[in-house]
Every structure is written in structure tokens, then in C-alpha cells.
């Protein structure tokens, strides 16, 4: 039928029909672009976002923000560094690293971002150009799927998105998630083959730079041998006088506590602790 119409219609008429069809497509495209520009330039959307910022170092505000997103508050709190310990870390950062220069930090183990937001906010208070590299494989943790999505939403709410460089990767080799614990119906051993992320992020960072990090917070894999390897791998990234911060050095995690109590054997000097968080410092010899 189409061939018949083509053969019967004069050439000029066919050209006119093609032109009209082309004009309709152009008009439709222009209309779509007009709508697109209106959405992009809708300042009310941007202004609404900018007016709802919370403080990254306000533990109650950040945990409540995440709860309002539908996350179970008990898991948020149990899986994050406590408010008291985060304030302790921030105090040590200010006392030790406040040299009027931008800080470069490394944060290992993000979960849903409470400690990341707090530490980043503290670093930015020391210098507004500070940056934190955040490493986490973004695996289901404590029953929460795709936790990095909540990390990024929290950073946006805290106006810290441009102060954090997230890396969805294992800090070292691929390992069993959730420290081997079963949360709900999520057994990390049966899901191991399905869990996927880049690996050896710390060692790969040393190919980009060395002796640049002012601090490293380590709250990822809690296996003793894994943590020891992490510490060895982060040392080349640290500046002389850089800080290594370990979470869970209390009696609940004996292997982590033992590592901190013997941190000098790893080339670091113990600096301070609050019973849960331990902080060590790198020296020239440690590098």
C-alpha cells in the first residue's frame, strides 16, 4: 500500500509531506528541550534542597535523618561510632592537625555514613578545602541493602557531597561481609559469591599518591589479620604525624583491642583513646 501511494503521489507532494513530518519532529524536540530547560533551571528545587541542610557533626540530627528515610534506628546506632567517641575523634583532630592547611583523610567502612559525615564536617571546620576519601564495598550490612545510597543522601543533606570522594571497593582483598554475622535472613557466607566490588583500594591509592593523608579512620573488616594488613597498607599513604583511628578497641572486640595495645609493633605510636576508639600517630620512622 505504501509503495502504491508513493507511485501515485506527485514528487512535489511527497516532498511536502516529508517536510511537514520533519517540522512536526522539530517542533516536538523544541518543546521537549523547553520543558527540560525549565526543569533544570527551576531554582525552587535547588533552593529547597539548600535550605534543608543539617550539621554533619550533629549525631542526633544525622541518625534521625537516616531513620526518617526508613532505616531501623537501632541498626543505625549499633552499627555506627557513638556520639561520644566521634566528639573525641574531632577533638583530637583539632588539637593535632589544626595547622591551617586542607586535610586529606581516609575513611574505611562507611555503613550509612554517620561517622563519615561527622569526621568530614570536623575536617572542613579545620579547613574548608579538606577532602575525605571514603572506602566501602557497598554490600548489604545489618540487613540494609545498598547502604551507599543512604551515605550519599546524608552527605547531600549535610552539604558535604563535594567534600567526600566515595570508592565502592574493599579496602583489601574480598572478604566475608558483616564480619560473619547473620542479620535477619542475610547470611554473608551464602551470599559471598554474589557480592561484588572492586578490591585492594588502599594499595591502588598508593599508585596515585603517598605521604599525603593526615588521618585514616579504620572501621571496616574486624578480622585481626585483615586489619593488620590494612594498617601496613595505609602507612605509605600517611604523612609524618598522620593519625590512624581504630574503632572498637573495647573488650567486645578483643582482637582489635590487642592490635591497638600493641600498635607500636606496627610502626605507630599510641596517642589517645576513650575506651572505644584508639588513635595512633605515624612518625618519620614509621614511613
From TrEMBL:
The keyword Methyltransferase applies. GO terms for biological process: methylation. InterPro entries: SAM-dependent_MTases_sf (IPR029063). It comes from the Bacteria. The keyword Phosphoprotein does not apply. Keywords: Methyltransferase, Transferase. GO terms for molecular function: methyltransferase activity. This is Methyltransferase domain-containing protein.
Amino acid at each position: 500500500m505504501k509503495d502504491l501511494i508513493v507511485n501515485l503521489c506527485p514528487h512535489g507532494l511527497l516532498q511536502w509531506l516529508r517536510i511537514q513530518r520533519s517540522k512536526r519532529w522539530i517542533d516536538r524536540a523544541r518543546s521537549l528541550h523547553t520543558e527540560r530547560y525549565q526543569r533544570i533551571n527551576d531554582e525552587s528545587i535547588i533552593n529547597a534542597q539548600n535550605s534543608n541542610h543539617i550539621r554533619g557533626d550533629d549525631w542526633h540530627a544525622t541518625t534521625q535523618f537516616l531513620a526518617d528515610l526508613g532505616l531501623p534506628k537501632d541498626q543505625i546506632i549499633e552499627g555506627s561510632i557513638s556520639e561520644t567517641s566521634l566528639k573525641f575523634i574531632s577533638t583530637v583532630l583539632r588539637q593535632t592537625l589544626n595547622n591551617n592547611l586542607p586535610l586529606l583523610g581516609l575513611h574505611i567502612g562507611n555503613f550509612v555514613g554517620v561517622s563519615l559525615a561527622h569526621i568530614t564536617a570536623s575536617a572542613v571546620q579545620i579547613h574548608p578545602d579538606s577532602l575525605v576519601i571514603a572506602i566501602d564495598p557497598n554490600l548489604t550490612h545489618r540487613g540494609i541493602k545498598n547502604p551507599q545510597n543512604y551515605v550519599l543522601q546524608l552527605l547531600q543533606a549535610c552539604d558535604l557531597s563535594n567534600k567526600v570522594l566515595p570508592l565502592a571497593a574493599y579496602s583489601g582483598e574480598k572478604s566475608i561481609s558483616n564480619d560473619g554475622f547473620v542479620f535477619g535472613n542475610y547470611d554473608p557466607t551464602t551470599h559471598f559469591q554474589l557480592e561484588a566490588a572492586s578490591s585492594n583500594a588502599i594499595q591502588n591509592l598508593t599508585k596515585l599518591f603517598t605521604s599525603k593523608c593526615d588521618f585514616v579512620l579504620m572501621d571496616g573488616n574486624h578480622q585481626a589479620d585483615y586489619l593488620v594488613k590494612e594498617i601496613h597498607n595505609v602507612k605509605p599513604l600517611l604523612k609524618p604525624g598522620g593519625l590512624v583511628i581504630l574503632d572498637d578497641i573495647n573488650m567486645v572486640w578483643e582482637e582489635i583491642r590487642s592490635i591497638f595495645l600493641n600498635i607500636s609493633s606496627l610502626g605507630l605510636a599510641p596517642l589517645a583513646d576513650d575506651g572505644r576508639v584508639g588513635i595512633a600517630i605515624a612518625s618519620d620512622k614509621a614511613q
